[in-house]
Amino acid sequence: MTIMERTYLDNAATTPIAPEVVEAMLPYMREHFGNPSSIHAHGRRTRAAVEQARRTIAQLLNCSPGEIVFTSSGTEADNMALLCAVRDLGVQHVISSPTEHHAIEHTYQEIGRQGRAQVHLVRLDGEGRADLGHLEELLRKHSKALVSLMHANNEIGTRNDLQAVGELSRANGAVFHSDTVQTMGHYRFDLQQLPVDMITASAHKFHGPKGVGFLYLRSGLALKPMIQGGAQERNMRGGTENVIGIVGLAKAMELAYADLEAHQRHVQGLKQHMIDRLRAEVPDVGFNGDIGPDALYTVLNVRFPDDGRAEMLIYNLDIEGISVSGGSACSSGSNTGSHVLGALYGDRPGANIRFSFSRYNTLAEVDRTVDILLQVLGIREGASVRNA
Ligand code: PLP
């Protein structure tokens, strides 16, 4: 089976790059190679492309182009948001959660370890949503705060209510950052309306290239650069711009938002079909996080009963040509375990697998995946299953 014939259900890890995005990037690999900081024609050509990309993104998010800072990744944008806010805005308290992506979690842990601010973790409900009552309590107790709560969790798909978190943050004078890496390109954002100060994005999560993202920085927030060494990005990030990546990022945004509602319906349909079939056909199957209509429609985290065969699921799915990812609770002794599942469910038995979908997946792929799961779990006769 070639890589193109396999079924790819790991879109929360990364998505296939859209052919239109590749086409948009090619001229910047072939002929438009100038340094955007050069003043001659070669440089002016790529400068124009970078600034056009910035305008495209700003228009889609209803913000101003000057509020978009291109970065090398979602991770860099997350680091910049936290580290620079603590350093430059007099932040003394960081309020976040235990289920953030490591780009946030490891950064606030480092801030706490170095004594640059005190870190407070908001309580979560059983599905991983921030407890807004507890958030309010923390905000009332601690002034000069930065709140960083992700929009949707990359492992379990549970979404926080950005409007509500933002309103609470504003009402209490806190700066609000949200890691929107899993939702950018999948939901609409109106940054004139939404009370957020910073959000982060990464192109490869919505069919753009890897190694490029951005930080939206509300104008008036007096941050200084994290990376020194050049006046690029209006003095906000030193380093020659990743022109090819930035062009691809803007094209991927354009494509994502051109037909967002249709993609959303299609992908939600795939996810619901998988939920329905698993419920009907796999005894004692469970789901981690929220699986209701408010959850991130691209992610489904399934808990299979631990019957001795389940732990081989990912391996067997891989052999059968299906790429998914998994995670067990970190308290189970494995350092590769999921800190998200560990924080929410402790050491609960079962094999946890994340299926994540994109607009390129089909119902037939979902059916094939469920059929193979049934064989691998021994519920239905079929494929040769390795128990090694
Ligand atoms: N934040 C979240 C929620 C993510 O899912 C990811 C990617 O896995 C990142 C941040 C990091 O983005 P990048 O891969 O661009 O560094």
How would you describe this structure to a colleague?
- With 388 residues, the chain is α/β, with parallel strands linked by helices.
- The protein has two domains: 7-16 and 259-376, Aspartate Aminotransferase, domain 1 (Alpha-Beta Complex); 19-258, 3-Layer(aba) Sandwich (Aspartate Aminotransferase, domain 2), CATH 3.40.640.10.
- Helix content is 39%, strand content 13%.
- The protein has a seven-stranded mixed beta sheet with strand order 2-8-7-6-5-3-4, with helices on both faces. Strands 9-10-13-12 form a four-stranded antiparallel beta sheet, covered by helices on one side. The chain has a two-stranded parallel ribbon with strand order 1-11.
- Helix 1 (19-30) packs antiparallel against helix 8, helix 2 (41-61) runs parallel beside helix 8 and helix 5 (132-141) packs parallel to helix 6 (162-171).
- Residues 330-335 have low confidence and may be disordered.
- The structure holds pyridoxal-5'-phosphate.
- Residues 73-75, 78, 101, 103, 150, 154, 179, 181-182, 202, 213 line the site of pyridoxal-5'-phosphate.
- The site of pyridoxal-5'-phosphate has 13 residues, from helix 3.
Ordered list of secondary-structure elements with their pairings:
Blueprint: E1 7-8, H1 19-30, H2 41-61, E2 68-71, H3 74-88, E3 93-96, H4 102-113, E4 118-121, H5 132-141, E5 145-148, H6 162-171, E6 175-179, E7 198-202, E8 213-217, H7 232-235, H8 243-258, H9 260-281, E9 286-288, E10 299-304, H10 313-319, E11 322-323, E12 325-326, H11 339-345, E13 351-356, H12 363-376
Parallel strand pairs: 1-11, 3-4, 3-5, 5-6, 6-7
Antiparallel strand pairs: 2-8, 7-8, 9-10, 10-13, 12-13
Helix pairs in contact: 1-8, 2-8, 3-4, 5-6, 9-12
